Amino acid sequence: MSNTQDYVQWFRGAAPYIKAHRKKTFVIMISDEVIYSDQFIGLVHDIALLNHLGIKLVILHGSRSSIDSHLQKNRLELSFHNNIRITDSAALPFVVQAINEVKTCLESHLSMGLPNTPMSGSEISLVGGNFVTGMPLGVIDGVDMQHSGKVRAIKHQAISELLALNNVVLLSNLGYSRTGEVFNLPAEELAGEVARALKADKLVYIQRGLEQGEASASTLSTRQCETLLADPDTPDEMRNLLNQAIPAIQAQVKRVHFIDPRVDGGLLLELFTRDGYGTMVTNLFYEGSRAASIDDIGGILSLIEPLETSGILVVRSREQMELDIAHFQVIEKDGMIIGCIACIPDEEEMVAEIACLAVHADYQRAGLGNQLLQIAEDRALESGIRKLYTLTTRSSHWFIEHGFIESADFNLPAVKRASYNPQRGSKILLKTI
Ligand SMILES: CC(C)(COP(=O)(O)OP(=O)(O)OC[C@H]1O[C@@H](n2cnc3c(N)ncnc32)[C@H](O)[C@@H]1OP(=O)(O)O)[C@@H](O)C(=O)NCCC(=O)NCCS
User: Fold this and answer.
1) Which listed site, 38, 76, 240, 423, has its alpha carbon 20 to 30 Å from 347?
2) CA distance 219 to 14
3) 359: helix, coil or strand?
4) Closest CA to 58 of 15, 90, 28
5) pLDDT for 350-389, tens place per residue?
6) What is the radius of gyration, based on Cα positions, of the chain?
7) pTM above 0.70, yes or no
8) pLDDT for position 214
């Protein structure tokens, strides 16, 4: 494909996302390591672009590594309890100084006119303020956390009003108490609290250290996040974020994204391409299963066609599909059918056939097959049917792992016998639910 065609394809692919994100609220947390890195300038252009596409932005910064280096430079000890910094009175002025320096750096970059860049001539209107009320973390396990705090309240109404006027709201990881004290807040937690208070559409974390292991999977449900948290090998950086993502999703933030900043344009790839670039936490994807309608037939056929061609699934005509469509469930992602299953009941013989189970190759091994089977089983139970059977040539083990047992002497229901092709040599498996 020529570059021009690539460009056209890319633009067409991005168009639905441009439309979908307009007027939506995104809370983006950027670590100070990223702000002081070579990649930051590209990120600033991308943030300017998001602002000009009509996305409402709250930008927060972290300050962890800057605080470390300020304290070290001033020969102060770095003390932590449960992985949380203890900010004592001696450290506080340096902590505030470090945070203000990061904020100034972020502010100055976001204030550039962006000459000689794709966003040349564009200007961002930035606003900050005392939107975060903090309170002391208190004494934990006998350790006084002193000026390390937690969020008490977010003035979300004031933030929403500023966003509605196309301002970008900038927040540092500081909170002020009603008695005039200053608290050092964990930026990840603050971002999560702000996203929850605003009921943001997206909460985005851009920071290093997110590329390892399982957690670099492209989509996670909150259940998978909990599994990762229970795994002692999950790194602390990821743990911090998972601990924010779960309550955010439970409080109706639609999606949480973790983006490793090393790839130029990673944020844009994550937001404007179907498969994204980073890791996304959402339960919407998993709730994306629904009963199929006649309009889904085209999508189901394109999903199963390669499997029919390779003999894994039995060939179904469009007409047959139209007759059976009421028995199908599908999983849709961004307008594409990525999974399907049929549960075809035989109310005479009180059995149901599980058929046409397929998950798109790009989305396998994420539990979708299991989810589809559970839905099909629920459908059978709704019709009062507790006995299931399936015919399979290649996936008998998958079904066995899901509670089916092989049964060579099972008498297929009369209706099924009429269309059954013994030459396929399918195995018959049964399950009682
Ligand atoms: C079978 C299928 C639906 C499973 O979908 P899925 O979303 O990947 O399923 P899950 O995520 O719930 O389960 C994945 C597990 O099943 C295993 N698995 C997948 N296909 C398997 C098979 N044919 N035999 C044994 N195990 C299989 C995977 O290796 C994975 O196990 P692991 O993660 O421990 O390694 C999918 O592989 C598929 O569409 N296959 C082609 C069509 C097909 O065979 N349909 C069934 C005939 S009706």
Assistant:
1) 423
2) 19
3) strand
4) 28
5) 999 999 999 998 888 877 898 899 889 888 988 899 999 9
6) 27
7) no
8) 45
Is residue 23 within 8 Å of residue 201, measured between CB atoms? no
Binding pocket residue ranges, ligand 1, CB within 6 Å: 307, 312, 357-359, 364-370, 392, 394-395, 397-398
The answer to whether the CB of 270 falls within 8 A of the CB of 257 is yes
Read off the pLDDT of each residue in 89-110 and give the average, rounded to a whole number: 95
CA distance linking residue 208 with residue 66, whole number of Å: 15
Rounded-to-integer distance, Cα 312 and Cα 393, Å: 6
Asked if 345 and 327 count as a contact pair (C-beta separation under 8 A), the reply is: yes
State whether 249 and 365 are in the same domain: no
Q: Mean pLDDT for the chain? A: 89
Which of 390, 394, 395 should be mutated for ligand 1, with most atoms under 8 A from CB?
A: 395
pLDDT of the residue at 433: 86
Domain end marker among 257, 281, 305: 281
What's the total number of domains in the chain? 2
Q: Which tokens hold the place of 134?
A: 């903090």
- Measured between alpha carbons, how far is 296 from 305 in angstroms, rounded to an integer? 14
Structure tokens at 248: 């955010």
* The domain boundary residue, chosen from 235, 252, 281: 281
Q: How far is the CA of 328 from the centre of ligand 1 (A)?
A: 18
Does position 150 have pLDDT exceeding 60, yes or no?
yes
Per-residue pLDDT at 210: 67
Query: Which among 396, 398, 431 is the best mutation to test ligand 1's pocket, defined by most ligand atoms within 8 Å of the CB?
Result: 398
Both 277 and 293 in one domain: the answer is no
Average pLDDT over residues 283-306: 85
